[in-house]
Amino acid sequence: MSPASIEWSREEEKAFENAIAIHWTDDSKEQNWSKIASMVPNKTVEELKQHYELLLEDVIAIEAGKVPVPKYVGEEASSSSTKDFHGSCGGVTSTEKRSNCGLGSGYSGLGQDPNGHGGKGGGSRAEQERRKGIPWTEEEHRLFLLGLDKFGKGDWRSISRNFVISRTPTQVASHAQKYFIRLNSMNRDRRRSSIHDITSINGGDPSTQPLPITGHQTNAAANPTNMAAIGPPPIKHRIPPPNMAGLGMYGAPMGHPVAAGPSHMASAVGTPVMLTPGHHHPYVVPLAYPMAPPTMHQ
DNA sequence: CTCCTGTGGCTAGCTTAATT
DNA sequence: AATTAAGCTAGCCACAGGAG
Known about the structure:
This is HTH myb-type domain-containing protein. The protein is mainly alpha-helical. Among the domains are: 10-64, Homeodomain-like (Arc Repressor Mutant, subunit A, Orthogonal Bundle); 136-188, Arc Repressor Mutant, subunit A. Helix content is 35%, strand content 0%. The protein is elongated. The model is unreliable at 1-6, 67-132, 186-194 and 203-298 (pLDDT under 50). It binds a DNA duplex through helix 5, helix 6 and helix 9.
C-alpha cells in the first residue's frame, strides 16, 4: 500500500474502524474526526484523514480493476495457475499463504482422492479438483465485501456478477454463509485465523497487519503438504486477538443488529441488518472503507 | 531430552435438500 | 429461480504420548 499504512498496527486499524462505524456521517465534520481520533490511540486527526484517503484510493483501485483478479473461470478453475496472482507469498499471514500459495496451487498436485464417496474410479483429476474447491483468496474476499457493501446481503447474484466475478452466486452465498457464521462466533475463544477475519478491504493488508495466527508449525517441516505453514513466524497459537472479547472488533456486539451505516462509511460488520427492498444502503458495511463509485468490472 | 507420530479440534469449500 | 440451511469431506494445526 503506502508508506503511511505501515505505521498502522492492527489494533489501530480496528480502533479506527470502530470509531468510523460509530462517528462517521455523510458530511464528515471536524468534530467527528475529533471523536474518531479520540478512539484511536496515537493517531492525530490529520493522520486519520490521511489514512482515510489511502483507503479510498485502495477501493478505487480495486474498483478500477487495478487489482488483479484471477482469471480462472468459476469452479472449473484449472488447477495450478489459478492462485497466487498476487505474485508473492512472502510476508503474508499464514492464512493468506494457505489461500494463495499453499493450498491454492497445491490442490492440483496432491493426487489424493478427495471425493470421499467416489473412490479412485470416481472421477477425473479435473473433477476431483472441482470437488475440492478453490480457496478464497484475500482479494476475492475483499471484492466480496465490496459487493456486500454495495448490494447488501442476499443479492449474491449481483455480487458475483459485478464484484467476485471469479465465483458463482452459489459460491458467493456459501462463502457469505460461512463468513457470517464466523462473525457471529467471534467472541469465542480459541479462534484460529481465517480469511473471514478480514472484515474490511483494508483490514488485511498483509504487509502491515499480520494476523495473530497460529503460525506455529510443529508438523510443517515434516509434512510436505504443509509447506505453506513454514513461512510465518511462530506466534503462539490460540491467542485471542485484541478487542475480541464480547464486543469484538466490529463495533457492536455480535448478533446485535446495527442500523445501516452512513452511505459512505462502515457501521459494523457481522451484524446483518435487513434492508427494505430496493434499498441499496450498505446494510452491513465491511468496516471502514469508503464507498466506492459505482463502477463495475464488466 | 529430543524427535516423531497419532489424534482431535477447527475451518474451508462444496453439494444437496428445503424454503421463499 | 434464487436463497438458505444442513451436512459432508479434506486440510491445517497444536498437543500428547511413545520411542530413541
